[in-house]
Amino acid sequence: xSTFQAPKGTYDLIPPNSATYLAVREAIAAPLKNxxxxxxxxxxxxxxxxxxxxVGESTDIVTKEMYAFETKGGDKLALRPEGTASVLRAALEAxxxxxxxxxxxxxxxxxxYRYERPQKGRYRHFSQVGAEAIGAEDPxxxxxxxxxxxxxYRSLGLRDFRIxxxxxxxxxxxxxxxxxxxxxxxxxxxxxxxxRRIEINPLRVLDDKREAVQEQLIGAPMLRDYLxxxxxxxxxxxxELLTAAGVAYEDDPKxxxxxxxxxxxxxxxxxxxxxxxxxxxxxxxYDGLSEMIGGPALPSVGWALGVDRTVLALEAEGVTLDIPAxxxxxxxxxxxxxxxxxxxxxxxxxxxxxxxxxxxxxKGLKNAMKSANRSGARLALVAGERDxxxxxxxxxxxxxxxxxxxxxxxxxxxxxxxxx
Length: 420
Ligand code: ATP
Ligand code: MG
Hints:
The chain is an alpha+beta fold. Helix content is 36%, strand content 21%.
């Protein structure tokens, strides 16, 4: 071990497990790439004000969890705690919304940072794959995103996840509900912090995880009883489209993402094998966000799925992904001349698209063959002085042990044939 360790709340992705992370990222991205979403990548940090406005001044993310700092040049920045604000900022900055081609559909994959109390499934550095569909109000778009996340989890082989669905109303009906909820909440016995929250962001009080708060919330007014006709119809259409697609969901009238610009559809993917960190992903419609960060009105919807928790969900269900061995062929030279010749063959094979590795460091035959087996390769190329004198290398099937001499200039062809 070195003097240093990974910082608290972080961990390293290391082979072979890191391959699972890559596969999960790819599995989540695949349905998006297949559905008209283009890849977007934004900086790991932004002006702190983007998140203050774009995530919300009253959220835990901004008040407690953000890594904010001032640079030597006096810029006030923050490591990104989430993706939506950055992606929308980038789309606006590039005028993607002006191409007359709405919605702008984007997907991303990256690292996010939150100063949280570390525990299983909750880290200070974590990974998300996300999707945003910017600039269209269409229940089919909300449904599309939920269906694609569902498809991603299914393709990974996950079964024990559930989709929770709710509507948060819009700027017509939400204020009426908000006022009714505030009136109800003001009558409860709550601490100072929570009282303040009632005035700033009352919906988030519903999300309070504490037992003492939850039991007082019984009988609180429910948003679904306040939805206007337009919101009801919209929500009904989303539900019908999901049902038609065979995607099961549960109506959860208490599911809130309590930011003022979150509107209508809101959803969360939860996994039942994860204990208290059960949310593997979440998202919803954010029709007001663009205006909050100085853009035009652009009704949008998106989600972010947590890669770390998805990997934990796979473990919880005992699912192992079928990840093919990285290496197909392993070359083992015996002697200096063989090193030179085989190294050339390795390069040739790689250029021909065959995943090939080489016994570096002048290992003896026994050690080199151990490495060959450990690499997962199906074939080994072994050559010593005598082979070279005859103009051949030995092609060895590592499973059967069968070995055949192959002419030097036929190696690529023979390897390809043997790999099928
Ligand atoms: P939670 O309620 O668990 O704090 P959240 O509402 O803060 O989750 P989102 O902001 O919706 O989470 O992020 C989407 C997904 O990103 C989560 O469902 C989760 O899988 C993942 N995620 C969020 N925070 C963390 C974290 N600190 N460590 C690992 N994964 C995280
Ligand atoms: Mg959180």
